[in-house]
Specification:
4_helix_cytokine-like_core; mainly alpha; Leptin; single chain; signal; about 160 residues; globular
């Protein structure tokens, strides 16, 4: 009779640890890991397009200061990538949009101030191909700087 009681006691005591929900710090760590993975995947997608792109374009992007700034710039890039004129950038736009949602989710989890996304009217660029390559270069430059600045994903 002692063995079944001992097993029942062990099962009851071990069950809460097996079924516990992840802590807030675990969720934050997982979100940061997912954000960096999406950034790396997006860079792979960009490199696949490089065969079709003109030579290297020099661009500047804002510094990576925290979740609020990252979200604002990703939203800006997402808006620039939305265009009815090309199917080339659909995957990159989907990646950036997904990345923006993850950053926003992390920011909300950490009580960071995040602005609502404004609705954007699609515009017709004067030189669509040139603008797309410049936008692609901006995305690449910004996402290449994200992993070295991953500590900024822990602050607002």
């Amino acid at each position: 009779m002692c063995i079944p009681m001992a097993l029942l006691f062990i099962f009851v005591m071990a069950a809460p640890e097996c079924t516990s929900l992840p802590t807030n710090s675990d969720s934050i760590r997982n979100n940061i890991h997912n954000i960096l993975n999406i950034a790396q995947i997006t860079l792979v997608h960009i490199k696949k397009l490089k065969n079709k792109a003109p030579p290297q374009i020099e661009v500047s992007t804002p510094p990576i200061n925290g979740l609020t700034g990252i979200s604002l710039y990703l939203e800006h890039l997402d808006n620039e990538l939305q265009s009815p004129f090309t199917d080339l950038l659909i995957q990159i736009q989907a990646d950036v949009s997904s990345l923006d949602r993850r950053v926003r989710s992390l920011a909300l989890m950490m009580d960071c101030p995040i602005q609502d996304k404004p609705s954007v009217e699609p515009r017709e660029p004067l030189f669509p191909d040139s603008e797309h390559y410049v936008t692609l270069a901006k995305v690449q430059h910004y996402l290449e700087n994200l992993p070295p600045n991953k500590d900024k994903l822990k602050v607002c």
